[in-house]
């Protein structure tokens, strides 16, 4: 079951099912939700032990500059969503060109913790930190970008970085 609040975690615990915390929706209180799920878990016929996944929004790029540009497109999308605009995912060019007022900056700053964006080294370190913080059995990666190429490259970099036995990303 996917959930972004304590209610979802407690419901999954009571039902004795696996739970995925939607960090990409709610980056706050994830540790508390995970802890409550584990503490209140009731074994079921299907699931004997609590099993927690953390679903995270990740974009991995080859360089810091590329990651920063991709993040600007994400910022624009979040501002659009905050204003109720259901637009296609912005391109990097649209994100880089966009200027923001104080209100939009507040939206961006509030939403930034929901995503992990950077080079393989930065992204894998943050993912490992989240895994440890939540004591997650699994991480689920969600990548939303304005181009198929950027999404594919992000997954390629993550796959290389998380090769079995790899503690550091590989190129």
TrEMBL record:
GO terms for cellular component: cytosol. Transmembrane segments: none annotated. It comes from the Bacteria. GO terms for molecular function: oxidoreductase activity, acting on paired donors, with incorporation or reduction of molecular oxygen. InterPro entries: Bact_Lucif_Oxidored, Luciferase-like_sf. PANTHER family: LUCIFERASE-LIKE MONOOXYGENASE. This is Luciferase family oxidoreductase, group 1. It comes from Paraburkholderia terricola.
